[in-house]
Amino acid sequence: MRKSNGMAMTSLDLRHSSFITRWYLWGPTALVVLGVVVPLGYLVVRAFGAEAGELADLVLRTRNLRLLGNTLGLAAAVLALTTAISLPLAWLVTRTDVWGQRFVTLLGVLPLAVPGYVMAYALLATAGPNGTLASLTGLVIPRPHGFVGAWLALSLYTFPYLFLNLRAALLGLDPALEESARSLGASRQEVRWRVVLPHLRPAFLAGGLLIVLHVLGDFGVVSLMRFETFSYAIYLQYAASYDRVYAAWLALMLLGLTGALLWGEARLLRGRLFHRAGGGMARHRQRSALGAWQGPALGFAGGVGFLSVGLPLVTVLYWLGRSTERGGHLLEALWDSASASAGAAVLAAALAVPIAYLGVRRASKRTRVLERIAYLGYATPPLAFALALVFFSLRAMPWAYQTLGLLIVAYALHFLAEALGPVRSALYQAPPQVQEAARSLGHSPLRAFFAATFPLLRRGLVVSMAFVFLSALKELPITFLLSPLGFESLAMRMWGAASESLFSVAAPYALALILTSTVLVGLLLQRDGQRDP
Q1: Local structure of 242: helix, strand or coil
Q2: Could you give the angle at the alpha carbon of 292 between the alpha carbons of 291 and 298, nearest 5°?
Q3: 239 and 146, same structural domain?
Q4: Which structural domain, as residue segments, surrounds residue 219?
Q5: 69 in the same domain as 39
Q6: Is 199 exposed, middle or buried (0-12, 13-18, 19+ CB in 10 A)?
Q7: 452-492 pLDDT, tens per residue?
Q8: Which end of the chain is more exposed for a tag (fewer CB within 10 A), N or C?
Q9: What is the CATH number of the domain that holds 364?
Q10: How far is CA 64 from CA 57, 71, 102, 112, 410, in A?
Q11: How do residues 229-288 score in pLDDT, each as one tens digit?
């Protein structure tokens, strides 16, 4: 009998070892690794395919510095505005007796139901001489465009990511830390700056990282606002030029920027502790009375809710009333979107199960690396990921280029991280002894898994598929580069009409996207409510 750490392996250990070496675990995992790493590797090969002199010209162009400045400047501005919105809002719902606390929390989450390019559409359709505001009130305001328009649209769309993280951190912060500082003579203001805010650093970095990643990878908002960032430049270079080498270099620069961001976030948290060091239980916190500040607090929350949710909804409904778009076009777009998204949801959930199983039941350095590779597809900006798949498919399997199958695979690989989370959570809650009991009754490893463990994963799988389905439904840049001929998703039709200022034509598709995206917000609120009643 083989030895492990000085002890004989049991027959159960041997069965587990045999189980994890089977093809139905490592096969799908290997496909994910190949699907993510190989196209990105081919993107590098494509970028270095030019001669040395041409490479120097491509890399050292002054346009690249302008794109870098535009991208970083927009990300910093969005992060600043989302912080100014999220921190006060999170403080209101966790530290004060603000009226309608649950409703205020809802206002901080609902903007997730409005895709970024729909938010940009709402801002464009509201302003201007023929906009919603001018038609309803006679008031004409300048139409936002460029940096300002992209800044407002992205901020109003992404601030919930930071709000949710800060809210969770404030709810989990032990009041004893602040009480100890107060007992040592610190003022309330000093406690906030020297105790509370430093303990919010992980939450701020987590939410801020999501926001900046969205800004770096965004295409819909910056294209509608005509503000040139790396993502928009990649699309223009790919669509309007035969020089695909420069498009590959732009994608690599964007990937490098994303990698530097992820490395920096990890460095900022390395070696820091934010949990309780002593014994005892954390106590509940007494909320501060707002008193005369109830009105301004509700006004702030209501203003944020109106700009991020009310304005897009009013604008879409107004232009919907003036729309002459035929219902058949909407149904065709809905079918195209749903068919591709459903396929991606099923495929992503199927790929997530073996990866999550290896990570939870047989955690090791190897399985952790495999999980990180799966998350790499999500962290890669969509246009860069799609461009890598374009180059790879044209070279290695041209028969797959611009097919529905390739689009579904691209969706599944890019959004696989969203499917992994709920499946991992379900596996952690599923007792391994149940599967061991099924094995002791003579079932094969695979049959024991499906008989004993798989039924316990159904809820997690449903949530995983819902997340991937709705994310794929809203996805724009991957769809643009990889969709089959004649394929028109809701996002593509809405963006195409809005980019031509055909706001009434875009309205039905925008409303369909908002309604379907609301399902995702409902799932988020349901899961949040189960964890924190």
Answers
A1: coil
A2: 90
A3: yes
A4: 61-267
A5: no
A6: middle
A7: 667 777 777 888 888 899 889 999 999 988 999 889 999 99
A8: C
A9: 1.10.3720.10
A10: 11, 10, 46, 32, 27
A11: 999 988 888 877 666 788 888 888 888 888 888 777 767 655 454 444 444 444 555 677
